[in-house]
Amino acid sequence: AVAEELGVPRYLLTAWLRSHDLKYADWMTNLRIEEAKHMLSEHPDWSNEYVAQQCGFTDRTYFQKKFKLNTGISPSEYQARANKKTS
Question: Whole-model pTM?
Answer without folding.
Answer: 0.82
